Amino acid sequence: MFIDHHEKHLQGVRNTIGSLMTPVIYLADLPNEFFAWGGQSLVSRSQLRQENQRFKEEARVLKSQLQKYIALQAENSRLRNLLGTENQALEKRLLAEIIQIDDDPFRLDFVINKGTTSGVFEGQTVIDANGMVGQVETVFLLTSRVLMISDARHAIPVRVARNNVRSVLAGSGHINQLFLRNVTDTTDIKVGDVLISSGLGQKFPVGYPVATVTEVVHDPGKAYALIAAKPMAKLEQLSSVLLVWKDKVLIPRPDSTNAKSEATDG
Hints:
6-stranded antiparallel beta barrel, alpha+beta, Thrombin, subunit H
């Protein structure tokens, strides 16, 4: 060993042995590398799932906000200003998950995971990313029961987006079928018309899409037309919904500021 240390006679042998041992070293370290890679992969997948869920929730809220454009909110705001309306409202939204669907064939409702502790109240409007779902029927501490718009007990004031014709849209008891009540045979309503919430009765906010007209039947012997519609909300595919309510804020009239300044100047 002393001679080899100085003369380097076995350097080639050691290099050969080192080369042969390299794969063995890699194989011995392979389990550690595998578990380290697997742990990083699991963490990355978990983070991606969380981010994906967050993006989906944000998308639902954004799509629900886009529905308001159907109601021509800009025009409504201009008209309110012309009328000098003081109390306007900012809409708030709360995401809720569906935890139970009623299996009673004569009831179209479901239970969500939000209750009085989250600020939910009876009569509160419920929507999804596409349109009106229904309203809160009963509230408990941690859960609430929501009545769908297609339930036979439900009705909502609507208007036709095309020409502003007003009517009442009632549930039929079938999840994808609604009917307009007491529409005279000469009323201008066509297949494909979009029905939006009119806000009459102040139970539902103005301007949310509710349904699309699917059938118009005129019977010469009857005073009223038979008009059927389909909900715009995907009632059969719901897994989560948005609860909507108004947060009133005081907005001073344009002329009140001028009046105060004039009084001060005087």
